[in-house]
Write a structure and sequence with these properties.
This protein has twelve helices and eight strands. It is an alpha+beta fold. It has a domain of 213 residues: Arc Repressor Mutant, subunit A. The chain binds zinc ion (2 copies).
Length: 308
């Protein structure tokens, strides 16, 4: 593992190191939805190799997402992995991802339905401002500011895993969409999209901000255009987010908020997203599209329709 992992990076860089991997996201998702805690259960549910699973769990323990707790397995002591409070807060990130998939991407047959136990409705999560209560916050309702010393290059992260060597992950209705994995399953892609939400539009500006190799940047921008997340560059050479890319904003807002709270330290290093209308720092909350109530981890559940 690279020596510069963790505390030296920006809060978002550190969060991406913990989360920006397709397997890490799937491991967390199974922990939330199926309450998976044991090594063999993840291995069987996800069909990944034991060495990959062991490496990912080790990373996630180091990042403070899981803690190992011993249990008795017919006289043998084994460890299970319990989500920490830091990881438990990620339920709204998973909900925001699910919401993006349902609203911006093509529907998948037998996709799980998200139920709000308070109103009984099948819902889509709506981003709200936790301070003033406004519902339906979009990127255009916000302003992002970087602290004086927030070197955006520090979002960049070592490439710990090579994409080409990894299997694509399980294909079932619970899995993330390929478009989701193309963004969140790849740390460079997430960093590029984060930069786009900060208003960065030109190839050289992305390159300078992210300290990213030209070939990787070209490849990721090409993919974003192919997937309809970014428009083709205009005559000024600017890449702009499409409506599908803009619809990713709730995921980004929730991720930035979580990263700052759990991995942030130095205020000068912060990235602040404000809600322009009320002037406060955006505290992202997810609201029920049916009753408007604020969603909590325990007030929602996925109806898997027997698919899992
Ligand atoms: Zn507000
Ligand atoms: Zn509701």
């Amino acid at each position: 593992m690279a020596a510069d992992e963790g505390s030296q990076g920006s809060a978002i860089g550190t969060a991406l190191l913990a989360l920006g991997d397709r397997w890490n996201l799937l491991i967390l998702q199974r922990a939330f939805v199926l309450h998976t805690r044991r090594f063999g259960d993840w291995r069987d549910q996800l069909g990944l190799s034991e060495s990959t699973l062991a490496a990912r769990l080790k990373e996630m323990v180091a990042a403070g997402l899981f803690e190992r707790v011993p249990y008795d397995d017919n006289g043998r002591s084994r460890d299970e992995y319990r989500m920490t409070p830091r990881a438990l807060e990620l339920w709204n990130l998973l909900l925001a991802i699910w919401g993006w998939e349902q609203t911006a991407l093509a529907a998948v047959e037998d996709a799980p339905v998200l139920m709000h136990d308070v109103c009984g409705g099948a819902l889509n999560p709506v981003l709200g401002c936790g301070v003033c209560g406004t519902a339906g916050i979009t990127a255009r309702d916000t302003r992002a500011e970087r602290g004086a010393q927030a070197e955006f290059a520090r979002i960049s992260v070592p490439r710990l895993h090579r994409r080409a060597q990894e299997p694509s992950g399980p294909i079932d209705p619970m899995s993330y969409y390929p478009e989701t994995m193309a963004i969140l399953g790849d740390r460079w892609s997430t960093a590029i999209l984060a930069a786009a939400f900060l208003g960065i539009r030109r190839f050289n500006a992305f390159k300078a901000e992210l300290g990213i190799a030209q070939s990787i940047l070209s490849d990721r921008l090409r993919r974003f255009v192919a997937e309809g997340v970014l428009h083709e560059p205009d005559e000024a050479g600017e890449y702009r987010l499409t409506s599908k890319g803009m619809a990713f904003f709730p995921v980004y807002a929730v991720l930035v908020d979580w990263a700052q709270r759990w991995y942030g330290g130095d205020a000068a290093d912060e990235l602040t997203i404000s809600h322009v209308a009320c002037g406060n720092r955006l505290q992202p909350v997810l609201l029920c599209s049916e009753c408007g109530g604020q969603l909590t981890r325990k007030s929602v559940h996925f109806d898997l329709r027997g698919s899992a």
